[in-house]
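Hey team,

Filing this mostly as a record. A colleague (T.K.) asked me to run one chain through the structure pipeline before their review meeting, and I want the input and output archived in the tracker in case anyone asks later how it was produced. No errors, nothing strange. Just documentation.

Input sequence:
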Amino acid sequence: MILNFAHYRFTPLKNSGCTVYLGQDYMVRNYDYHPATYDGRYQLFQPNDGGLAQIGPTSRVTGRMDGMNEAGLSMGYNFMHRKHPGDGFVCYMIGRLILQYCKDVPEAIQLLKEIPHRSSFSYIVMDKHLNHAIIEVSPRSLDVRYDHTCTNHFKLLTHENRNYTKESKERLDRLLKQTPNGLDKMHAFELFNNPEFEIYSKLFKSWSGTIHTTMYEPQSLKAYMTLGENNTPAVIDFQQWLNGQSLDIHSLYGHIDTDLTFASY
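Output structure:
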């Protein structure tokens, strides 16, 4: 139970990608990984035994790779490396804990300081007050920066970086060149979801292909989600759902350019 559902690990993790951009009042993110690991499940959940309601895709049934909670806190994470892992929680359980128990950026930072970490990741958070942070974490150390962009290398914990960061830095450079101040949220979503802009990745066999693009608005509590490339996002009003209104969407559709098998098929 601890290994498979609490996600407290002591086994190696695979390489992966992911890109995040923090706009003025939104967070947009590409989730890059291997299809065989993907749940294919989008969940709105309101616990009745404590904790905050959440919206977003699930990972390994009980985890979250990104999402937003009823307090408006939005979260995504980016893989850094799997060198020298420690005993601790893996990324998708940490993501779920952030959303379940933290209402704002300071609370998320404090939680990340207190729990044990299996591997090295950056956790990107934005709250309803539009405070944001990128928390760089390894099993040995933690530091916080307040940039708007994140790929797959540390900027502060540079001694923790893997040897090969060329692709991550090149993707970050492309992102920076295409994200001027005041970038409209839908243009940002297209930037992430259209392969022509070279942020979206098709490296599925290398465990770093883009499976979904998500966007969260902490103040309006609206969530955007699409599978695969060049797709119009589904928009879910989380606040209306919290108020008791039923969803008018029941499935998500998209084209992912790979012949690899998904876990749910």
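Quick notes for T.K.: The longest strand covers residues 208-217. The chain is about 20% helix and 30% strand.
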